[in-house]
Amino acid sequence: MGVRIEQTALPGIGVRYDIVTGSGRRIGVVVRRGTDDRELVIASRNDPDSCLASIPLTDDEADALAEILSASMIASQLSQLAEGIAGLFTEQIALGSSSPYVGRRLGDTKARTRTKASIVAVLRGGQVIPTPGPEFAFQANDVVVAVGTRTGVDGVADILAGRR
């Protein structure tokens, strides 16, 4: 993966976990000892001990940030995989509340039969649901990950939007 996580004990406070980005910026999380309190911190470029910004995070905020980062990472990895194969595309399709498939099963779409594209995952509330089966029920705000030809994934988007 190529990313190093540094762990630094902060006497009387807790532990700081840092990564150094490709651009040389240092981003960290301070976890306070004896509590679940945590802060997102951004260090000065020239002095890693100098904090430019500190943002306290509630449990829900930390969970939401982790979900956003993990969901986007998985989708990015799928996209990179598809880029390596000529003619194969990966698309993330947001399922709005107006979709005729909200509350209905994946099998009802007949997406694979109709488009030759596959729905390979669904991102829901920061969770990844890999390889959902035909009994899987969609919910509003799901993000559907489809893989196939350009025409195929566009067809899946049209089906989920009720345009086809």
What is the topological layout?
Elements: E1 5-10, E2 14-20, E3 26-32, E4 38-43, E5 51-57, H1 59-83, E6 89-94, H2 106-109, H3 111-115, E7 118-124, E8 127-130, E9 143-148, H4 150-161
Antiparallel strand pairs: 1-2, 2-3, 3-4, 4-5, 6-9, 7-8, 7-9
Question: Could you explain how this protein is built, in words?
Answer:
The longest helix is centred in the middle third of the chain and has 25 residues, at 59-83. The protein starts with a strand and ends with a helix. The mean pLDDT is 83. The strands form two sheets. Strands 1-2-3-4-5 form a five-stranded antiparallel β-sheet. The protein is elongated, with a radius of gyration of 21 Å. It folds into two domains: 5-57, no CATH class; 71-161, 2-Layer Sandwich (Alpha-Beta Plaits). The protein has helices spanning 59-83, 106-109, 111-115, 150-161, and strands at residues 5-10, 14-20, 26-32, 38-43, 51-57, 89-94, 118-124, 127-130, 143-148. It is built from four helices and nine strands. The protein is of the alpha+beta class and 164 residues long.
